[in-house]
């Protein structure tokens, strides 16, 4: 299995621009998670999906952030408009149904820099 | 919410020696999972080892082992025969038995000295 795939790996944009991050989970995994990692706040859960449905988006910082999962093999995290404080590494992770012992498998991350 | 504390922001170890990374957590649940993740400079999060709280036996994965003290809510990671490739940020994480959300510590940066 190729693991969780994220694109792009690096993104540099200017303040006010729209940014879209993409994620392909491991095939067969029912859960998908979006995390943000910064030096100041560590690793934060933004939102997670189960069977393509958003379950908990309480970690989404504000309305500028939105996430979608149109099908089982694809998810996006969008920031519009972007701000310098959004600069961080964004991770996508997937896992199987938690009724079975399981773990989260992380993608390589997208390093976002907003100038 | 559960909290996970890693009190050692940085640690160093001589190559081939043993090092122990500390982790404590706060929970009122009796069943849960604990994990150690490794994050090398590539930034990818890699699962190192996991422990089910109902198991008394400490998990072991090659050179990596844990010391799980449920009553003390402590979950330390021991790396034996440290190698240069072990240099990374290590995160301790908690997940409740029936829940989906992981709670991560702030990480420990491990340096391996040749």
Summarize this structure briefly.
Chain A is an all-beta fold. Helix content of chain A is 0%, strand content 54%. In chain A, 37% of the residues are buried.
Describe the model.
The complex is a heterodimer of chains A (115) and B (114). Chain A is an all-beta fold and 115 residues long. Chain A has strands spanning 5-7, 10-13, 19-24, 31-38, 42-50, 53-56, 65-71, 74-79, 88-95, 105-106, 110-114. In chain A, the strands form 2 sheets. In chain A, strands 2, 4, 5, 6, 9, 10 and 11 form a 7-stranded mixed beta sheet that branches. Chain A has a 4-stranded antiparallel beta sheet with strand order 1-3-8-7, with no helix packed on it. Chain A is globular, with a radius of gyration of 13 Å. In chain B, strands 2, 5, 6, 10, 11 and 12 form a 6-stranded mixed beta sheet that branches. Chain B has a 4-stranded antiparallel beta sheet with strand order 3-9-8-7, with no helix packed on it. Chain B is globular and about 40 Å long. The chains are: A mainly beta (115), B mainly beta (114).
Write the layout of secondary structure elements.
The complex is a heterodimer of chains A (115) and B (114).
Chain A: E1 5-7, E2 10-13, E3 19-24, E4 31-38, E5 42-50, E6 53-56, E7 65-71, E8 74-79, E9 88-95, E10 105-106, E11 110-114
Parallel strand pairs in A: 2-11
Antiparallel strand pairs in A: 1-3, 3-8, 4-5, 4-9, 5-6, 7-8, 9-10, 9-11
Chain B: E1 3-5, E2 10-14, E3 19-21, E4 24-26, E5 32-39, E6 46-52, E7 60-61, E8 64-69, E9 74-79, E10 88-96, E11 102-104, E12 108-113
Parallel strand pairs in B: 2-12
Antiparallel strand pairs in B: 1-4, 3-9, 5-6, 5-10, 7-8, 8-9, 10-11, 10-12
Distance between the termini of chain A: 36 Å
Low-confidence stretches of chain A: none
Q: Low-confidence segments of chain B, ≥5 residues, pLDDT <50? A: none
Question: Largest chain interface and its two residue counts?
Answer: A-B, 24 and 22 residues
Q: What's the Cα radius of gyration of chain B?
A: 14 Å
């Amino acid at each position: 299995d190729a693991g969780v795939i994220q694109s792009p790996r690096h993104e540099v944009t200017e303040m006010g621009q729209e940014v879209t991050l993409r994620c392909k989970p491991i095939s067969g995994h029912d859960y998908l998670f979006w995390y943000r990692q910064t030096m100041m706040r560590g690793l934060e859960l933004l939102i997670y999906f189960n069977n393509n449905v958003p379950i908990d988006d309480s970690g989404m910082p504000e309305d500028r952030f939105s996430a979608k999962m149109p099908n089982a093999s694809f998810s996006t995290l969008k920031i519009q408009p972007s701000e310098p404080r959004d600069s961080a590494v964004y991770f996508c992770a997937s896992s199987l149904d938690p009724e079975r012992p399981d773990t989260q498998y992380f993608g390589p991350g997208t390093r976002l820099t907003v100038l | 919410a559960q909290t996970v504390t890693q009190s050692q922001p940085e640690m160093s170890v001589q190559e081939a020696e043993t090092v122990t990374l500390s982790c404590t957590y706060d929970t009122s649940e009796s069943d849960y999972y604990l994990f150690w993740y490794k994050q090398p400079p590539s930034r990818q999060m890699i699962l190192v080892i996991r422990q089910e709280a109902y198991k008394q036996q400490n998990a072991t994965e090659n050179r990596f082992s844990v010391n799980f003290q449920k009553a003390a809510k402590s979950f330390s990671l021991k790396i034996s025969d440290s190698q240069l490739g072990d240099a990374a940020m290590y995160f301790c994480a908690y997940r409740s038995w029936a829940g989906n959300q992981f709670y991560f510590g702030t990480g420990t940066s491990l340096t391996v000295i040749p």
